[in-house]
Amino acid sequence: MRKANKLIDQVVEKIITEYEQNTNKQNSSDFIIALLSMMDKPTKPQDKNVHVYDRTSIKAILVEHGKNGGRKDLEKLDYLYMVVKESLRLHPVAPFPPRECTEDTTIEGYHIPRKSRIIVNVWAIGHDQSVWSKLGEYVFGMQLGLTTVRLVVARLVHCFNMELPYGMKR
């Protein structure tokens, strides 16, 4: 295990060194460049509990960011899952996604031929109290989005020290 950790440390050190030596920083939105721009600078100079990201901190963030772990922990984050589902119900990514019928069908007396393009008002469905007796139980067609958003938020919460702004209290 020590050998593997040493090898990982050497690889991450080489990545950081290459980024530092690269004077042509074309992609300024790169995650590593963003981390290096914070190195050796106080996060909140006005705060008495100032934290400074040093080289070791940057390496730890990169190693943690590169791990595939975390996905297995998503199943344990039930509350986060409910928050993401409810957020997508209230604020759908695409409020009027177009759909194409795969076969002839009739809905409430209206004939809809195969290959017809229809527009579904997802926003109205997500806000219809007669449809949602238990509002937080289902989000229309969002399994991939739910998993992705949950994973991203979980990684952010795990990697950073989150706190309420401007001295707000719980």
TrEMBL record:
Name under which the protein is recorded: Cytochrome P450
SUPFAM superfamilies from the UniProt entry: Cytochrome P450 (SSF48264)
A GO term from the CC aspect: membrane
GO molecular function: heme binding; iron ion binding; monooxygenase activity; oxidoreductase activity, acting on paired donors, with incorporation or reduction of molecular oxygen
Source organism: Rhamnella rubrinervis
Co-factor requirement: heme
Entry's localization field: Membrane
InterPro entries with a match to the protein in the record: Cyt_P450, Cyt_P450_sf
Assigned protein family: Belongs to the cytochrome P450 family.
Annotated keywords: Heme, Iron, Membrane, Metal-binding, Monooxygenase, Oxidoreductase
Segments traversing the membrane: none
Domain of life per record: Eukaryota
